Amino acid sequence: MTDTLHIVGGGMAGSEAAWQAANMGVQVVIHEMRPQVGTFAHQTGLLGEMVCSNSFRSDDSEQNAVGLLHWEMRAANGLIMATADKHRLPAGGALAVDRDPFAQTVTDTLMEHPNISVEYGEITELPQSGSWIFATGPLTSSTLGQAIAAETGAEALAFFDAIAPIVYYDSIDMERAWMQSRYDKGETEEERTAYLNCPMDKAQYDAFIDALLAADKTEFHEGETAGYFDGCLPIEVMAERGRETLRHGPMKPVGLTNPHQPDVKAHAVVQLRRDNKLGTLYNIVGFQTKMKYGAQTEVFKMIPGLENASFARLGGIHRNTFLNSPTLLDGQMRLRSRPNVRFAGQITGVEGYVESAAMGLLAGRMAAAELLGGSLDTPPATTAMGALITHISGGADAKTFQPMNVNFGLFPPVDGLKSGRRGRKDRYKAYTDRAKTDWQAWLAPQAAIA
Predict the structure, then answer these.
(1) Per-residue pLDDT tens for 274-324?
(2) Which residues make beta-bridge pairs with 311?
(3) Considering only CA atoms, which of 393, 379, 354, 367 is closest in space to residue 11?
(4) Longest C-alpha distance within the chain, in Å?
(5) Domains of the chain as residue ranges with CATH
(6) Is 386 annotated as a binding residue?
């Protein structure tokens, strides 16, 4: 049916695209291959399943580009953000969620929408006709990946993404660990104590780094290369870059005071973040890894407080696929060689849950507008969503294109503001003020049909 929007993939991008298009009055079919065809990282067949972290990162819409993206999605009646707010967990200034109820609510909400239906099964080709959005994410099936590569005339690019382990809270030694958000950040006591902290002295840290470097790692198959995304590096890769790298990254000790030894400053601190509402599960922040399972349990039990840890899930590594979007997609997220096909989410070269859902939001609205006989302009590049879509549809250098989180470096500068660190607070506030005004102006004409 030409008046039906078909969306392949029910992750963050596909779920958001379906919600936006359906609310504009378009009939939507979500094609989801899970649970009939599984992936390395997914555990369920639910729509909107979170496969890595349970965090949507900063919720600060005045000083952080991710927080601004949250704001824009909320202003556009975004399903992903509304569901995240409903299942929010304490995480300092970040937006973390209880992942299983989150995915169940996304699934239930979409299933209950009168304009949305779900068909389970794998789509293996790019259709010649009809309106389609492919939001198959970084774990696009090999068969579909081959079809995409054949259509584009180029190999799909790939990098390797790693998953952090999850620990059972009742197996953590709280006589050694303590609860505190960095710099006591948060408006409530729950927020100020959202993270669980495990301290290390210098000798413990050095021994930990030695073990990381010596541990058995996952090997790559012939022809594969380890082109990691820098925002999701395995900890052992960071350790290989220098012994102090982790201590200045996910294990930095600043802004934390150990109540068990208040006069002793930790050399390094491992942080864990609550992974579910019950508080029974905690994920080790920034500890994505490609160590083999046996090595993981040995190495992670060297962390003070985790000597007797039990793991609900160990870390892992998987291949992430994305397009060279600057050469393949136009400003409407359409495949230049086949305009009836749009792409959305991480396969377009954005990185992160929020960015993925944001591209789904835009693709859903643009496709729906087209089906309804109209069109939508690309959002201004001064907005967070506009900055992202501008980047992936031609703003980035195709020769060096890599997955990108939203950041203020993608925004056009504001004239008259100081550069450098000293002027950063005023500059970021100017970016976000301008973005909010321009985003509302972009949304306003759509209110009658959305």
Answers:
(1) 887 778 889 999 998 989 999 999 999 999 999 999 998 898 877 778 898
(2) 167
(3) 354
(4) 70
(5) 4-156+323-446 (3.50.50.60), 163-319 (2.40.30.260)
(6) no
Q: How does pLDDT run across 120-142, given as a tens digit for each residue?
A: 999 999 999 999 999 998 778 87
Is 12 flagged in the annotation as binding? Answer: yes
Residue 9 among known ligand-binding residues = yes
Q: How far is CA 147 from CA 124, 213, 357, in A?
A: 7, 39, 24
Compute, in degrees rounded to 10, the torsion defined by CA atoms 261, 266, 270, 272. 40
Question: At residue 331, does pLDDT exceed 80?
Answer: yes
Contact at 8 Å (CB) between 115 and 26? Answer: yes
Q: Is 179 annotated as a binding residue?
A: no
Q: Using CA atoms, how far apart are residues 23 and 304, in angstroms rounded to an integer?
A: 50
Of 9, 50, 45, 12, the closest CA to residue 30 belongs to 9
Question: 58-64 long-range contacts, Cβ below 8 Å, gap at least 24?
Answer: 58/93, 58/94, 58/95, 59/93, 59/94, 59/95, 60/93, 61/432, 61/436, 62/428, 62/429, 62/432, 63/425, 63/428, 63/429, 63/432, 64/428
11 annotated to a ligand binding site: yes
Please indicate if the annotation marks 67 as binding a ligand.
no
Given CA atoms 216, 221, 225, 228 in this order, what sign does their dihedral have? negative
Residue 377: which pLDDT band, with cuts at 50, 70 and 90? very high
Q: How far is CA 337 from CA 184, 368, 448, in A?
A: 52, 20, 32
Query: What pLDDT digit, counting tens, does each position of 5-51 carry?
Result: 999 999 999 999 999 999 999 999 999 988 776 565 567 879 999 88
Q: What is the mean pLDDT of the chain?
A: 90
